[in-house]
Fold this sequence. Notes:
The protein is α+β, with helices and mostly antiparallel strands.
Amino acid sequence: MKITFEELRYFLEEQFPQGASYGTLQELGDGWAEMKLEVDEEHLRPGGTVSGPAMMGLADVAMYAALLSKIGLVPLAVTTNLNINFLRKPVAHAPIWARATILKVGRTIGVGEVFVYSEGSEEPVAHSTMTYSIPPEK
């Protein structure tokens, strides 16, 4: 693992301050990360469910954290593709959490998947696959 939990938490606060609205880092390992989003009214859509963009944002930031655990603090690693399948309705006012796992990291690309869960449910509410572009080393 290239970074510690505390290094990444500080980095996200400093370099990606809007990221807090997408969730907070809970755990970090070599090639994986878990993040949690405390769902409130801004994350809900009509019909009383968590919005797709809220789940996508959580999944994306979780994948970013998992990737950085493998490549170090690279601010300009960016999402180039995000595919998400919404599997079931999350509980409206319960936190959601994401577990991101890196599947492959090369010199210029990283690929991974994320499962999103609604607190209290063992079945995932969404599944996402993502590709990140890794900038060349200077």
